[in-house]
């Protein structure tokens, strides 16, 4: 494992570039390479040991070709701090969360999720799948990585395969059984399901989860290939659902499932090949969860549709609104005792999954509800779908704070209800929008919802014109 030291100022700059709000991510090898992976492994191991007395760590990776070297380098860094390593090999991110929760170990998943092939990254969690983010340890881990690289530590690293504290484990069957435990599979009716795994980790995990169920499963692009030869592994983009929608219609499937690269997110397509938004799926899963947990607290992030809290209240639950992002959702779940939480981005969190997100658990929950209702998804969705949304619109601005302040002032004059839970949310009763800055780029992210398609289009144009006029006042 050839790991080379470099100028301290160079590695500090590279670490600064790849440490994001929720994880580590960058292009390989110019931003992220074996040396930095080893350093981050050492920094995380020290943080986990000092913060919670960790003695061992779970490590997994996705199908990207760079993952083999990076995961081994990361493991070397962990071992250098005296922790044992349980390497689960090729895995989905939710499998690593499961391993972290069931073994009470911190975990690391080498993945860049939906990003293109040139990228890789690291998602981290503490024991019990407890999230690690910008405000919950990433800064300390980065500082530990810097200290590791500033010393002569790279030259002392050993090959994990020769270290008795390093062992491998195959947890796929155990994870599949855990996923199936969320439903009563004896109540599943025979169904036809098409799953587009986009050459990502769903190609490994999904067939094992569905094995033995009364489901006729077809996998599109199931070969594990980190070059993504068929389409990007980003199911929130409509262009990446084209093949799935066509196949659902062609074979008369009951539902289509689209997973991202590390298979922790899922988007659904109904029997008429019409996609479901993350908000709509959150509502449907919330209803199913409340059938089993009457009166429970359910979380939804603030860019979800207004229909989500409406459904939760109608079904006897307690809705709680959260910021966007897994670390905030998981922390709020711990504070409130919520049994489920959903995000518009296709992340779905379950208390019995160690408060971690899992696309395949959400998919199974919907299949069970479809079986109980004996109705096609195209009919089942109607009661949950009440408004029209813009999707997320990203706009580059030179000064995000200035634009947010000006937008707030404009709509305050109009009598809107305003809040700052995450960015700026403006509610005018019949329509609302959220405008929040990106954590990593000079972007504002706009999400808008209204009661009709025309209203949505008109108000989107209104807000967009306002942002443009603030950014370019002379135009």
Structure description:
This protein is an alpha/beta fold. The protein folds into four domains: 8-170, Alpha-D-Glucose-1,6-Bisphosphate, subunit A, domain 3 (Alpha-D-Glucose-1,6-Bisphosphate, Chain A, domain 3, 3-Layer(aba) Sandwich); 174-183 and 192-269, 3-Layer(aba) Sandwich (Alpha-D-Glucose-1,6-Bisphosphate, Chain A, domain 3); 281-358 and 370-384, Alpha-D-Glucose-1,6-Bisphosphate, subunit A, domain 3 (Alpha-D-Glucose-1,6-Bisphosphate, Chain A, domain 3); 388-471, 2-Layer Sandwich (TATA-Binding Protein), CATH 3.30.310.50. It has 15 helices and 22 strands. The strands form four sheets. Strands 1, 2, 3, 4, 5, 6 and 7 form a seven-stranded mixed sheet that branches. Strands 17, 18, 19, 20, 21 and 22 form a six-stranded antiparallel sheet that branches. It has a five-stranded mixed sheet with strand order 13-12-14-15-16, with helices on both faces. Strand 19 (417-419) and strand 20 form a beta hairpin. Helix 1 (8-18) runs antiparallel to helix 5. The model has no long low-confidence stretch (mean pLDDT 95).
Blueprint (SSEs and pairs):
Layout: H1 8-18, E1 24-27, H2 34-52, E2 56-61, H3 67-80, E3 84-90, H4 93-103, E4 107-110, E5 119-126, E6 130-131, H5 134-150, E7 166-168, H6 172-180, E8 191-196, H7 202-210, E9 215-220, H8 242-251, E10 255-259, E11 266-269, H9 278-292, E12 297-301, H10 307-314, E13 318-322, H11 326-336, E14 340-342, E15 348-350, E16 356-357, H12 359-373, H13 377-380, E17 388-389, E18 393-396, H14 400-413, E19 417-419, E20 424-427, E21 431-437, E22 443-450, H15 453-471
Helix pairs in contact: 1-5, 2-3, 2-5, 6-7, 9-10, 9-12
């Amino acid at each position: 494992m050839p790991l080379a030291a470099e100028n301290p100022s160079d590695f500090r700059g590279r670490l600064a570039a790849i440490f994001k709000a929720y994880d580590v991510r960058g292009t390989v090898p110019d931003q992220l390479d074996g040396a930095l992976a080893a350093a981050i492994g050492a920094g995380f191991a020290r943080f986990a040991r000092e913060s919670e007395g960790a003695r061992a760590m779970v490590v997994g990776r996705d199908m990207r070709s760079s993952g083999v070297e990076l995961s081994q380098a990361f493991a070397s860094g962990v071992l250098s701090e005296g922790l044992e390593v349980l390497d689960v090999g090729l895995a989905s991110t939710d499998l690593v969360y499961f391993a972290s929760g069931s073994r009470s170990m911190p975990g690391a998943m080498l993945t860049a999720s939906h990003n293109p092939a040139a990228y890789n990254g690291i998602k981290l969690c503490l024991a019990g799948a407890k999230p690690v983010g910008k405000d919950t340890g990433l800064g300390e881990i980065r500082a530990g990585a810097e200290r590791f690289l500033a010393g002569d530590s790279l030259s002392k690293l050993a090959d994990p395969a020769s270290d008795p504290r390093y062992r491998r484990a195959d947890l796929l069957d155990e994870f599949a059984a855990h996923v199936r435990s969320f439903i009563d599979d004896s109540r599943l009716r025979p169904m036809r399901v098409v799953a587009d795994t986009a050459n990502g980790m769903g190609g490994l995990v999904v067939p094992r989860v569905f094995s033995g169920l009364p489901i006729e499963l077809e996998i599109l692009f199931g070969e594990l290939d980190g070059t993504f030869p068929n389409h990007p592994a980003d199911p929130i983009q409509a262009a990446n659902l084209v093949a799935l929608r066509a196949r659902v219609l062609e074979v008369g499937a009951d539902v289509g499932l689209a997973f991202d690269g590390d298979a922790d997110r899922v988007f659904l397509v109904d029997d008429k090949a019409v996609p479901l938004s993350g908000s709509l799926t959150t509502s449907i899963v919330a209803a199913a969860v409340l059938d089993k947990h009457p009166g429970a607290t359910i979380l939804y992030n603030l860019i979800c549709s207004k229909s989500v809290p409406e459904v939760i209240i109608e079904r006897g639950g307690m809705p709680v609104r959260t910021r966007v992002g897994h670390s905030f959702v998981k922390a709020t779940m711990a504070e409130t005792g919520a049994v489920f939480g959903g995000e518009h981005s296709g992340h779905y969190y379950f208390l019995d999954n160690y408060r971690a997100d899992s696309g395949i658990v959400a998919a199974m929950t919907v299949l069970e509800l479809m079986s109980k209702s004996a109705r096609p998804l195209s009919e089942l969705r109607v009661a949950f779908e009440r408004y029209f949304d813009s999707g997320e619109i990203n706009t580059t601005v030179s000064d995000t704070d200035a634009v947010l302040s000006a937008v707030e002032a404009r709509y305050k004059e109009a009598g809107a209800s305003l809040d700052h839970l995450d960015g700026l949310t403006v509610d005018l009763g019949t329509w609302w929008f959220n405008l929040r800055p990106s954590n990593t780029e000079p972007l504002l992210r706009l999400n808008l919802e209204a009661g009709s398609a025309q209203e949505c289009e008109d108000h989107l144009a209104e807000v967009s014109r306002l942002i443009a006029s603030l950014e370019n006042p002379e135009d």
